[in-house]
Design goal:
The protein is globular, with a radius of gyration of 20 Å. With 390 residues, the protein is of the alpha+beta class. Strand 8 and strand 9 form a beta hairpin. The protein binds calcium ion (2 copies).
Length: 390
């Protein structure tokens, strides 16, 4: 049974769901929809020589993190770690000492101003939810993900029937350098792509049980959470946890991208999008927990796959919170608004992915934000969950 696109606060009546993705493979008669919502789009990047310079700190505007002192309320649920909560400075400043045109930071005005936030303690999955875990959920519930369902003619009356096919969006890099002005050059809507077939119908997850599950729409993550007795983190919870007790650091581990010459997260090296040099030992997606955990024991909060949070996206939300002094357990704005694509509701994504690079997307920098339309999954988007203490 297919669910209708939900009526979202702030959305307009036009249903959109995964339809934008269909534009990628078909010369569709459907007008007015775009693909940008899938791509955490940046402004046109302008690579500079400074792009590889050691990043400065982003301490400007940050105050120390003050964690709650109460100990964990009991033994950790399987696969989870205790996040103490507390008061912290949230957001991402302009990196001091770096050129204003440094790619990836220029489009982060939505993560300012830096503001004080307080969150309560909670349990959090130490890793991104894996294929093994998601398979258990599907086996127990029979859940069929959004990517496995064909969009219905009822929801998309203008779509030619041949376009209403189940599938999802897959990174499909060109074999040569391309201008970075359009993500259509490296993303494709692939029929039959879903969590069991991450790259399309001829692919599978055999031997990939410990990889993050991907092609997950927001409602898929919510369904898994209901089954598991957990919930998606708020954006504030996610960032508090990802910072691992540090304040104002560029990355979950500190301010230097490499530590003793070693990579600390699965990101993209080489010329984007056509060349991935695997310098961090992982071309494309990696099994979870291949890099050191942060100060709270969380793996891959930076990179590997993007992660859903429960907040609606608005670029001006932090401004509103800052005006309130210390924001207590913020749950996001009541409605979504993205000036890049007005009328398309979006939830906040966090952490960047194996495709993030300083040439194009540097959202592994910990205070920065991503966004995505709730019914749209890709092969670099997953999730992890939290649980309130009982
Ligand atoms: Ca990599
Ligand atoms: Ca991640």
């Amino acid at each position: 049974m297919k669910s209708k696109p939900k009526s979202k606060p702030g959305s307009e009546s036009r249903p959109r769901s995964r339809l934008p993705t269909l534009l990628v493979i078909v010369a569709s008669a459907i007008a007015g929809l775009s693909f940008a919502l899938l791509m955490h789009r940046q402004d046109s990047p302008k690579p500079t020589a400074e792009a590889n310079a050691a990043p400065a700190t982003q301490a400007d505007g940050f105050e120390p993190t003050v964690p709650n002192m109460a100990p964990a309320p009991g033994p950790a649920p399987e696969g989870m770690v205790w996040i103490p909560g507390g008061e912290f400075s949230m957001g991402a400043a302009d990196p001091l000492g770096r050129d204003a045109n440094i790619v990836g930071m220029q489009a982060t005005t939505d993560s300012r101003p830096i503001h004080r936030v307080a969150v309560d303690g909670f349990w959090m999955d130490a890793t991104e939810v894996t294929n093994r875990q998601f398979a258990r959920f599907v086996q127990a519930t029979g859940h069929v993900t959004v990517a496995e369902r064909a969009p219905s003619a009822k929801d998309f009356p203008d779509a030619p029937p041949e376009n209403l096919v189940a599938g999802s969006v897959v990174f499909s890099p060109p074999d040569h350098e391309v201008p970075l002005d359009s993500f259509y050059r490296w993303w494709s809507y692939v029929r039959g792509a879903d969590w069991r077939h991450p790259l399309g119908p001829d692919s599978n997850i055999e031997g990939h049980q410990d990889y993050p599950v991907v092609h997950i729409a927001y409602e898929d993550a919510e369904a898994y959470a209901r089954w598991a007795g957990k919930r998606l983190p708020t954006e504030a919870e996610w960032e508090f946890a990802a910072r691992g007790g540090l304040s104002g650091a560029l990355y979950p581990w500190g301010n230097e991208f490499l530590v003793d010459g070693k990579y600390m997260a699965n990101t993209h090296q080489g010329h984007f999008p056509n060349e991935d040099t695997h310098a961090d030992a992982h071309g494309g997606i990696a099994p979870v927990a291949q890099f050191p955990a942060n100060g709270y024991g969380l793996y891959d909060v930076a990179g590997n796959v993007w992660e859903w949070t429960s907040d609606w996206y608005r670029p001006d939300y932090y401004r509103d919170l800052a005006a309130a002094g210390v924001a207590r357990d913020p749950h996001g704005p009541d409605s979504s608004h993205d000036p890049d694509e007005p009328g398309i509701p979006k939830r906040v994504h966090r952490g960047g992915s194996f495709l993030c690079t300083e040439q194009y997307c540097s959202r592994y920098m910990i205070g920065t934000r991503g966004k995505g339309e709730p019914s749209s999954g890709t092969n670099h988007l997953g999730f992890r969950l939290v649980q309130d203490p009982r």
